[in-house]
Description:
Blueprint: H1 20-33, E1 54-56, E2 64-69, E3 75-81, H2 83-88, E4 94-97, H3 98-158, H4 165-195, H5 202-209, H6 215-219, H7 226-236, E5 237-244, E6 250-257, E7 262-268, H8 280-292, H9 297-306, H10 320-330, E8 348-350, H11 351-358, H12 362-371, E9 376-378, E10 385-388, H13 391-402, H14 411-433
Parallel strand pairs: 1-5
Antiparallel strand pairs: 2-3, 3-4, 5-6, 6-7, 8-10, 9-10
Amino acid sequence: MNREDWIVFLPGLLPGYISVGQYEKNRQRMEANRSWSQGPGVARNGPALLAGLVACGRCGQKMTVGYQRGAGGRLRPVYVCAREKTGHGGGQCQQLDGSCVDAYVTALMLDALAPAALEVSLAAAGQAGARRAQVDQIWRQRLERAGFAADRARRQYQLTEPENRLVARQLEKEWEAALAERQRLGEEYDRFTATRPRTLTPAERSQIRALATDIPAIWHAPTTTDADRKQLIRHLIEQVQITVAGTSEQAEVQVVWAGGHTTTGQITRPVASLTQLSYYPQLAQRARELAHAGLTHTQIAAQLTTEGFRPPKRCQTFTAAAVSDLLRAAGAQQPRNPTRRPALAEHEWWLRDLATHLDMSHITLDSWVRRGWAAGYLHPAIKRIVVQADPAEVERLRILHQTPRGQHLRRPWLTNQQASTDSAEEGASENADKPQV
């Protein structure tokens, strides 16, 4: 039952294990750690720094986090909006690589912390000076108490009658011990002030101010865990909304800071194919012009990189192989010499020719052959893959290529379900035809 529905609430009426304030803090912490669609959840050690904070800019739903194994075995985060697909069998809203979003938001956060870090460092210098003054005051009070004790012992000794020799001897010992304690504390205070003066030195103030420039180093330090970074981000940022422009590499990121201020920017995400690039028409036209000018693939790659064009995925420069794929997709690739290829049997295709016929990537078709989704073999003469596909098989591969991602994994289950339903219906009809005994 919610607190709004309580009839009576008497806090502090009976003694409890914890206070009411601590109980409320515990409830808030447990509510924040819940893993549900309306909250960020607990900060874990995964490399996705914005887990729990990313929302889809199209439908407004919270985006989930997945991981892919990248180069060197490192996990790369992927932010996915697929609630309509998983909950209602619809299509996937959008998906993008999480590293580019994390890098963009991290840069914004570190820039926002730079002026605040300078203020914090100056405040830290003032606090350090105040603490030293407090410690110095404590030392002075200890010296003052030691002086009072020694003066009291002196007066007690002087007021003693001479005939009370035993009492006078004891009071003399106490006076001597008080004088020794005062001298010892004075020597320790002198050593303390020599090593730790009451005010900060200019060098110490410079070191404290230098902490403002060390925040990026602390952020990227090996001792700083991903959970620590996520906690810092959640103190400053409430939500990050992402909207991918169609299927292109352009994405809009809107950062909602704590307090309500928003920052909007554009990022470039890696995409799978050339045709997804927003500048693909200009890129293809420029590649055709350079090819018609007689430049080699290596020269075309260098020229495209110089002019600011970038290939898809995570590459920063064009290569000769990338230019070859680009010219082939743009229809400007020089035809291969068919005399160098041996003749094939009926319903056999060279892998690249079939990929061009199906309007798909030859890399994808090659992976299908390796997985067994398509029949093929390695030609013994020229070491190239040959795909065996009659017209029906070609049509099947075309349909498989046009099927949305992940949909082909659900088709066998649906087929089995339909077969089970048909079998049950047939069995029911047969039982209905049998005579009653």
